[in-house]
Write a structure and sequence with these properties.
Elements lengths: L15 E5 L2 H12 L5 E8 L2 H5 L3 H13 L5 E5 L5 E5 L2 E2 L5 E5 L8 H13 L12 E7 L7 E7 L6 H19 L2 E2 L4 E2 L9 E2 L9 H4 L30 E8 L1 H13 L4 H14 L6 E9 L19 E9 L11 H19 L16 H6 L10 E9 L12 E9 L8 E8 L4 E8 L5 H19 L3
Parallel strand pairs: 6-7, 13-15, 15-17
Antiparallel strand pairs: 1-4, 2-8, 2-16, 3-4, 5-11, 7-8, 9-10, 12-18, 13-14, 17-18
Protein name: Alcohol acetyltransferase
Pfam family, one: AATase
Organism: Orbilia javanica
């Protein structure tokens, strides 16, 4: 580090100041620095990977070197100018040994794996990032079992300012591409790459430009009118306060691949989608467990589909381009007969109609744009202390990750399981649901909440209700 003090301005080894942060990026920095939201994480299982596992840890470093070239966000930090303006800063090189941890789990697969994933994710989601002006805003944990195991898992954890949930999928897609590209480069005798070794403490960063913030991508967007106040008592957990520690807790449901296919078949039969159905299922389960008769939910929506195609932004790149749409529910909408699903399908169809309306709007009305006019995000967030929460629960469904083998009958390395979670939002919804499915694999549904905001018996009842309804639907005719 001592040599850094002698670098001159403009030197190729000096960090380079990039663009100013957009409004939503500044909001995310404020939340992190206040300790109100730490990070997002996705843990992926890589299977049919005996060659990669045998060249451990070199192969993992090499894969992240490849991802660094694909995603310039992985080499950025956030700095504050003398006038208080936030900027992205790009490092000239990245030391992967500072960012990647290697672990060995004897029980990496089997019945206890879900407990391990919940424990690891909760631990990571409760850790923020230090030295955000000098070290990239992500970290990773590579985990494997015994040496003869043909699978391993990689946990990728990142600051929300450099990417939304789909950004995590993009990084894992890049890692998978790298493993496939380099698998044939492994010398079976030495279990080392046949090409020259790379220096992983000093990996050059990508020359690609950073993408623009959402307000530049959607310059004609504005916030829609605020929803009318709910008529009746709304449940949204305990009020936000800054007196107690902010501790994220996680719950989890694994839905088997066969059940996922049966539920999707039922969705097609009833003219709805998995996201719309999950909204209705969680809402019904919540209303069954709380005394209030009304709730409001916020569902994440990706804005990428609304950008000009010439910008070449799709799900393969990193960036923070999300908003939400809100939906309200009340108990009288749902049948109290546990055996009847008619009302659930009706609500799900209404949810689908709302989603279709959001898509048809083409990004002209974007709820998150309401934050653009805020001058001081930290002060705005702190002003909510002691106030009721706007939303009862939030839901983010990343959909289906397509990371299976590319050649039929050929067992390429593949991603066949994913576990998506994030920190609780201290002054956001009372709890959140994070969902991801791998093509042909299980669906993982993760619940995250702040200790003291939702009672343990409440969340257990909600998780149990969701599990029961998913099972009921998967076996319905």
């Amino acid at each position: 580090m001592a040599t850094k003090t002698h670098l001159k301005e403009g030197s190729p080894d000096m960090p380079k100041r990039e663009r100013e942060l957009g409004f939503y990026e500044r909001f995310r920095v404020s939340l992190h620095d206040l300790g109100y939201h730490n990070n997002v994480s996705i843990i992926a299982r890589y299977s049919n990977a005996i060659k990669i596992s045998n060249s451990w840890p070199h192969s993992v470093f090499r894969a992240f070197s490849y991802a660094l070239q694909k995603h310039p966000e992985l080499s950025t930090t956030v700095i504050r100018g003398e006038d208080g303006t936030f900027y992205f800063q790009r490092l000239s090189t990245v030391n992967l040994e500072q960012l990647i941890t290697f672990k060995t789990f004897q029980g990496i697969e089997g019945e206890d794996i879900d407990k391990e994933l919940v424990s690891l994710s909760a631990s990571e989601n409760n850790r923020g990032f230090e030295n955000t002006a000098t070290i990239p805003l992500w970290r990773a944990i590579a985990m494997r079992g015994p040496s003869d195991c043909d699978s391993f898992r990689i946990a990728f954890i990142w600051h929300h300012v450099i990417g939304d949930g789909r950004s995590g999928l993009a990084v894992h897609q890049s890692l998978l591409e790298s493993f496939r590209l380099f698998e044939d480069d492994i010398d079976c005798k030495s279990n080392r790459p046949t090409t020259a070794s790379l220096e992983f403490t000093c990996v050059p960063t990508s020359p690609k430009p950073l993408f623009l913030p959402m307000e530049k991508m959607l310059p004609n967007s504005s916030a829609p009118p605020a929803p009318a106040p709910l008529q009746g008592l709304k449940w949204a957990g305990n009020f936000y306060n800054d007196k107690s520690p902010i501790l994220t807790k996680l719950g989890h449901i694994r839905v088997s691949a066969n059940s996922v296919q049966r539920i999707l078949s039922q969705c097609r039969k009833h003219g709805t989608t998995m996201t719309a159905l999950l909204q209705a299922i969680v809402a019904k389960s919540l209303l069954n467990k709380v005394p209030s008769d009304r709730i409001r939910t916020a569902v994440a929506v990706s804005l990428r589909r609304f950008f000009d195609p010439k910008l070449e932004i799709d799900d393969s790149v990193m960036g923070l381009w999300i908003s939400t749409y809100t939906t309200e529910y009340h108990k009288t909408q749902f049948s109290q007969n546990a055996e009847k699903l008619d009302s659930l399908w009706k609500i799900s169809q209404q949810n689908t109609a709302q989603i279709n309306g959001v898509m048809a709007n083409h990004g002209k009305d974007v709820e998150i744009m309401g934050l653009m006019g805020v001058h001081d995000y930290s002060a705005a967030v702190k002003s909510r202390v002691g106030q009721p929460r706007d939303n009862s629960f939030g839901l983010t469904n990343l959909g289906i990750f397509r990371g299976v083998s590319t050649v039929e009958g050929q067992e390429d390395i593949a991603i066949d399981d994913m576990f998506f979670s994030q920190s609780c939002h201290a002054n956001g919804a009372a709890f959140q649901i994070c969902i991801v499915t791998v093509q042909g694999g299980d669906m993982n549904v993760v619940f995250n909440w702040q200790e003291g905001v939702v009672l343990q018996e409440e969340i257990e009842g909600i998780v149990g209700g969701v599990r029961a309804l998913m099972g009921q639907i998967s076996f319905s005719e």
